Amino acid sequence: MPDIVCKCIYEAYVDPPMSIWTTLLDFFCSVVIGILGVIINCKFIEKLQEEKRAKPPGRKGNVIEPIMQLFCKFQIIFWPYYLLYMWIHFNGIIPASVMNSWWCNIGTQITIKFGRMTIAWNSFFVAFIRYVYIVHREKSNQWDFDQAGKWFRVASIVVPTIFNTIDLFSQGFWEYQRGEAFKNCIAVNQGLNNTSNITIPNIYPYALTVEYLPQPLVRSMYYINSAAAILILSNLADGYLYFSIFRCIKR
């Protein structure tokens, strides 16, 4: 039964193309944007590598460089995938009949949301490194730059992975379970003639989580995680760090 939730979300948000030409034009634009993004990020990687090789002997390394290299490589993979997924999804290339809850989570929750959160957290870590090395420069200058860079690079992947895992098991996709198209789809799959008596089942893996944990606890985890995501995605946390840097410089 939970599989119908993903199927109906998919059907409700498909935007049928006006013609085959609009579908092909959409695909062509996505390919062009993806290729340009790959070229730009490859140029950035080459520049970072040149700067690293040109570092004078005895000079401390660049803590931000390992994170930026990983960030560029991640974008080379993520954005072409994202554009392809959105083209497939909104043009209804994959029939809704083959959709299931785990595909929803693999397609949107695990890959798309993880990608977005990783990019947002990367921005935060760049701001955080600058904050540490400017506001707390006396203490931070005692650290090994290369080692610190490696630790920050690992953290830039581990932290968003933890947050996304919590979101995966506490997210019920409630924000997408609205609108007449979605409700009508649920009613049809439950053999009902109207939407007044429909019962929307929990989607996996949220349905699995509430079997073993109290629902209020799961909801609390979701809201706390969402609050942290808002701070990161809105760049409010970055803004606070840069404001602190500005205040330190102005002293």
Number of strands: 0
Strand content: under 5%
Mean pLDDT: 81
Order of helices and strands: HHHHHHHHHH
Number of domains: 1
Radius of gyration: 22 Å
Large-scale geometry: globular
Percent helix among the residues? over 70%
- Overall SS class: mainly alpha
N→C terminal distance: 62 Å
Q: Which parts are unreliable, with pLDDT below 50 for 5 consecutive residues or more?
A: none
Oligomer: single chain
Enumerate how many helices there are, as a single number.
Answer: 10
Major sheet attributes: none
Reconstruct the topology from this structure.
Elements: H1 3-13, H2 20-53, H3 64-90, H4 101-135, H5 137-140, H6 145-170, H7 180-189, H8 206-212, H9 215-233, H10 236-250
Helix pairs in contact: 1-4, 1-7, 2-3, 3-4, 3-6, 4-6, 4-10, 6-9
Polypeptide structure, described:
With 251 residues, the protein is mainly alpha-helical. The protein has one domain (3-250). The chain is built from 10 helices and no strands. The protein has helices at residues 3-13, 20-53, 64-90, 101-135, 137-140, 145-170, 180-189, 206-212, 215-233, 236-250. Helix 2 (20-53) runs antiparallel to helix 3 and helix 6 (145-170) packs across helix 9. The radius of gyration is 22 Å and the shape is globular.
